[in-house]
Amino acid sequence: MSGQRNAAVQAKIPVSVKAGYHVNSNAPNDEYLIPLKLTWKSTGALEGGQITYPKPSQEKYEFSEKPLSVYTGNFDLVANFKVAASAPAGPGIAVGQLRYQACNDRACFPPKSIEVTVPYQVQ
Q: What structural domains and CATH numbers belong to the chain?
């Protein structure tokens, strides 16, 4: 991703959930479920980083009496940034952490976090 100072820029972050599994959406139907959440540790010369999550599916599983708000398959998260007015020209990397809870049709597994990096170029 590249942009000029003060420009709004977006980064698509591809996510792939293994077949037979799902992750809770960013807004699960029950408070005890762990949402999919991307947070930024460092954004370098970028400001903001608000995440746009896709529309979740409402799926029914054996272990739940009501449908769950989930993501399956391949989808994109979109990070919305603004290039800082004082950003130096050149490359940089925004570093974030994606927290999720994977489940299959019978049970959920302990939550995990993975690092997400978004390289950028200030022009």
A: 2-122 (2.60.40)
